[in-house]
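Sanity check

After download, print the first record. It should look like this:
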Amino acid sequence: MTRIKICGITNLQDALLASELGADALGFIFYPGSKRFIEPDRASEIISSLPPLITTVGVFVNQSREDIETVRDKTGIDLVQLHGDETPEFCTGLPFKTVKALRIKERSDMARVELYPLQAILFDKYSEDAYGGTGESFTWAWLQDLKANKSIILSGGLTPDNVGEAIKTVGPYAVDVSTGVEDSPGKKSAHKMRKFIEAVRFGS
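Expected C-alpha cells:
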C-alpha cells in the first residue's frame, strides 16, 4: 500500500483532520524561506496532540546538523527530510532517520540518487524560485528505469486528479503532497485531502 504524507502542516486542525482521513505522515517545514514555515514551538504543540502511529517529518533546507538536532530535540519529529542542496557527504553518518529530496530538472538528474547513502529518496520538481511547494511536476516516467535499491517517495504537482496515474506510472513507496490539497499556502482543504487519500487508497 502506498503511504501518504501531507506536508506543510501549520495548524492543529489540519493535522488532526489529515490523520483522521488516513494520512500516514505529516510534514512540518522548518525552513524560514517557505510560505509554510512553522516555528518549532508551534510544531511541538501540534505533534504532542497527534494520535499514535502518525509519522512526523521535519523538512529542512541547507541547515546545519546542529540546527536540525535542536529542532528535532524540541519537537520530537520522527524523520528528517533534507530538501535543499545538501551533499552526499553531509548525508553520511547522520544520527537520525533521513530522507533526501532530489529536485529533478532533466532525466540525467536521476543518476544522483546513487550518490546518497540513504534508504529513501524523495523526487520533486526543480525550480529556480523555491525549494519545493511549487505545485509543478516532472516527467514521472523517468523513474521507471531507476535501478537504485531505495524507497521512492514521489512529490511535485500531485493532486487528487493525477495521483492515481502517478502511482500507476512510478509505483512509489509513498506520495508527498502539499500544494495539491490546499486552499492557500499552509491551509489545507478538507475536501481535497479526502479526495487525495481516497484516490491513493481506492484509485478513485
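If your output differs, re-run the checksum step. Summary of this record's structure: The longest helix spans residues 190-202.
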